[in-house]
Design brief:
This protein has a domain of 98 residues: Band 7 domain (Tetrahydropterin Synthase, Chain A), CATH 3.30.479.30. It is 40% helix and 17% strand. The chain has 5 helices and 4 strands; from the N terminus they run ααβββαααβ. Strands 1, 2, 3 and 4 form a 4-stranded antiparallel sheet that branches. Helix 4 runs antiparallel to helix 5. The longest helix has 25 residues. The radius of gyration is 41 Å and the shape is elongated. Its main location: membrane.
């Protein structure tokens, strides 16, 4: 049944069956099934390259054998004599600080040298502590600043020896 104008006529094969037009890959199918997976794989490989997955080799057995576990670090504590210091009050009464400090060192062999330099350490501590006010020691921030300042002063006093930490055993402000 063909139209007179030829419009709407279907394409027929010689045997009378309708021809089916074959389409190529449409744009959406091309993007969805080909380009998107290629971009994902390329992005993954590029990310792995940037992250260093493809860099160096696994450590050799020789290197692993050479890296033996180190002996545990020796920690040594040295107790300073107790100090009693008159704090700065700007003439408004008396205020005292009683403090006991312990020093943390990494080396047992540094103790004799530290004992030789102890007068210098005590002098630096006394000079610094005498200029403090009671307000300077209030709160955790004040104690932390005091600890850091004492650590700085002792490390500058005993320069070749390295003191790791200053530990407060007792502190009394009156």
């Amino acid at each position: 049944m063909a139209d007179v104008n030829g419009e709407g006529a279907s394409d027929l094969n010689a045997d009378g069956t309708e021809k089916v037009k074959k389409k190529g890959l449409s744009g959406k199918v091309l993007v969805l099934f080909i380009l998107l997976p290629l971009l994902l794989v390329g992005g993954g490989v590029g990310g792995a390259f940037v992250a260093g997955v493809f860099d160096g080799e696994a450590p050799d057995e020789e290197v692993v054998e050479e890296e033996e576990p180190k002996a545990p670090e020796v920690v040594v504590f040295y107790d300073l004599p107790e100090m009693l210091v008159n704090l700065d009050t700007n003439g408004a009464g008396n205020s005292f600080l009683k403090i006991s400090v312990s020093l943390e060192l990494n080396d047992q062999l540094a103790l004799p040298e530290l004992e030789k330099l102890m007068p210098r350490v005590m002098d630096n501590f006394q000079v610094y502590l005498r200029q403090l006010r009671a307000e300077d020691l209030k709160g955790a921030g004040g104690i932390y600043r005091l600890k850091e300042e004492l650590l700085y002063r002792i490390n500058s006093s005993v320069k070749p020896i390295q003191v790791k930490d200053v530990l407060f055993k007792e502190m009394l402000v009156q």
